[in-house]
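Data deposition worksheet. Section B asks for the primary sequence of the deposited chain exactly as it was used as input, without tags or linkers unless they were present during the calculation. Section C holds the resulting structure in token form. Section D is free text for depositor observations; keep each observation to a single sentence. Incomplete worksheets are returned to the depositor.
Section A, Depositor: J.P.
Section B:
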Amino acid sequence: MKKTALIIVVLFISSFTGFHQTTTIENQSESFTWLLGSWQRVNDSPGKQTFEHWEKSSKQLYKGMGCTLKDGDTIWKETIKIAKVGKDWHFEVLGQKDAFPTVFKITEIANSGFTCENAENEFPKKIEYKLVESGLKARISGGGEKVDFDFRRIH
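Section C:
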């Protein structure tokens, strides 16, 4: 059963590899194309595997999916969006048991990273993503807590 779940997750993630589109965006600082593809967390707890997959739906919408497996069984799943709303960019997270997404306003955008914040959220209040030479670094923080996620590209 555990191997079957892992195979399904890998096939699901790899099925998106054909969706990569590179489009010239007028304002390069608002391009999240560096995030596209499939990523696997390399600093997980023993027995766990965490994955994220991102694709570009339009110039103003990027869609993602994240999941964590423990001993081959899915223990967490979320859908993620980066969307332009008016003049602002939002990062939205919808957990597997959530009725509504948690919305974070993107407060800083760089060519290979961004920071978003929601002071009203219990945890996290801040999410950061940054492309680095070794892969992708993400951090969730707020209220004195912080969790680092180190990813490497798998597709």
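Section D:
Strands lie at 37-41, 48-58, 61-70, 73-85, 88-95, 102-110, 113-117, 126-132, 135-142, 145-153.
Residues 102 and 121 are 8 Å apart (CA to CA).
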